[in-house]
Amino acid sequence: MKKRMNATIGSLFSTLLLANFTMAACQTTHAPVVMRSADNKQVEVQISLNKQSLMWDQSLGAEVSKKSMQISKERRSDLNSIHFLGEAALLERNTRSANQQAKLMLNRDTKSESAIKIQIKAALIEQRPHAALLLSDNALDIAPQDAEIYSLKGLAHTQLGHPIIAKAMWTKALSLDPLNISSLMNLGVLFFNAGHVNKAGAHFDKVLAIVPRHQDALMGKALVHSAQGEPQHALQALKTLSTRYSDNPIVLENIANIAKEHLKDYQLAMKYVEKILALKKTDRKSLESAVAIKQELKKRLAAEETQLSDESLREMADASATSHALSSGHARNHMSLDDSNEIARLEESIK
Known about the structure:
By secondary structure, this protein is mostly helical. The protein folds into two domains: 13-194, Alpha Horseshoe (Serine Threonine Protein Phosphatase 5, Tetratricopeptide repeat); 243-351, Serine Threonine Protein Phosphatase 5, Tetratricopeptide repeat, CATH 1.25.40. It has helices at residues 58-74, 79-91, 95-108, 113-125, 129-142, 147-159, 163-176, 181-193, 197-210, 215-227, 231-244, 249-261, 266-277, 284-350, and strands at residues 13-18, 33-36, 43-48. It has a three-stranded antiparallel beta sheet, with helices on both faces. A hairpin with a 6-residue loop joins strand 2 and strand 3. Helix 4 runs antiparallel to helix 5 (129-142) and helix 7 runs antiparallel to helix 8 (181-193). 39% of the residues are buried.
């Protein structure tokens, strides 16, 4: 794999499907976002296994939490309600509750594709990729043409460190469903991290054609612009994102990196690094990265100041030399004039 670019982007996405509901998800350390599916028949919850993903709509969290509580109080036992509670539990990373809901579904239908998908996602959240693969194969025996299952298999292979197989799974998913957002995003990230920025951009564009405000796709597209030599375009796009996600370190870090590496604007980079360090809640990795960037920026700013000081000294030296030369020139001119006058006086006296 080629050297990774100096950029950060979420890397693992899966789709949670909540049919017949108008909202989904509850707050989690991950970042889910609710959107209509491409065919507008169901609601999709995109969730990233990368904690720094932008895909979280705070306003929807309270609504879904309320809906989950309502279902629990009413003790509704229809499959749609059980499915909803299972998916909502996943978004809370409550895999135990999610698996319990999946078992309730399987008790009614031993071939419940939706129930097995919940189990697969729970296994992925728990970092059990082998279990996820086994469950995925069982699900494919029931639904061999389900794009989402192939997409989830891709995530499992990613956890196992098999990017080539993961790519094959996501490609297969798209052959079955060209509008499968999670596979488009994962392939886009895979291509970006491998240095194939044009291919990455094409995949992010496809996502944005389906969901124009897909936050992680917007992030990916901005980083593609940066990699293609359009740092100002990328910076503007990231600044727009930062107005909404001012407390997300991944946005701030990418702005700092672009300002530092591409624009050589160390003051601007330092401004955004300080914003990361001032965040009340951020992960250790982001803090360590911000500290490292700040140390590098200090060195560059010090070198820049030293260079300016050296240039100032050289300018002063040049100015002094020029002044001396001019003074010497004037002196020589005066001496020449005096000499000429003296010779003229001598000639006059000889006469």
